[in-house]
Amino acid sequence: MGAVFASGISATAQEVNPVSPELTPKLRDLLRKEMLSVEEASKQILSALIAGDDARVADLAQQIHDSFILQQSMTPQDKQDLMSVVPKHFVTRDRAFHQLAASLAEAGRDGNRARQNEQFGQMIDACSACHALYATDRFPKLAE
Ligand code: HEC
């Protein structure tokens, strides 16, 4: 990947480009599907949080955790294709994001509502943080 789009997108020094154009059609499709299901699950978590439905929060957050695109539906060839185009920091962010989902699931199982709110907030922060770095083609306002 070149540094063509790097200027002006982010204050960080690391190389940041939209990743989608670099992906194979199959991987792009997988990523979008995962994003849509993650967004849907996040909305449902919000509804469960405001209803005090700890078990449902745990369930949905666990689903997000388990949807890890880098581990699911991918052949070894896909994996190689992915790793050869996405920056290391993208993978790190994806892992951290799924880790937050795991912590949220745990807080749900523990019935700890203050912690559920906190982890949910952090998880949503992680969405826009990654988009601001790697999906400004899809979400141009994040680059403003
Ligand atoms: C590790 C990076 C990363 C994280 C974390 C992340 N996203 Fe995304 N997301 C992307 C990328 C990259 C795209 C652009 C995909 C494309 O345009 O092909 C995207 C696109 C999307 C889209 C648009 C999908 C489409 O069909 O156009 C939605 C909706 C979305 N993300 C929701 C979320 C939500 C909700 C979260 C958090 C709960 C989240 N994302 C977390 C990287 C991430």
TrEMBL record:
<dbReference type="InterPro" id="IPR002321">
    <property type="entry name" value="Cyt_c_II"/>
</dbReference>
<dbReference type="Pfam" id="PF01322">
    <property type="entry name" value="Cytochrom_C_2"/>
</dbReference>
<dbReference type="InterPro" id="IPR010980">
    <property type="entry name" value="Cyt_c/b562"/>
</dbReference>
<protein>
    <submittedName>
        <fullName>Cytochrome C</fullName>
    </submittedName>
</protein>
<dbReference type="GO" id="GO:0009055">
    <property type="term" value="F:electron transfer activity"/>
</dbReference>
<dbReference type="GO" id="GO:0020037">
    <property type="term" value="F:heme binding"/>
</dbReference>
<dbReference type="GO" id="GO:0005506">
    <property type="term" value="F:iron ion binding"/>
</dbReference>
<dbReference type="GO" id="GO:0022900">
    <property type="term" value="P:electron transport chain"/>
</dbReference>
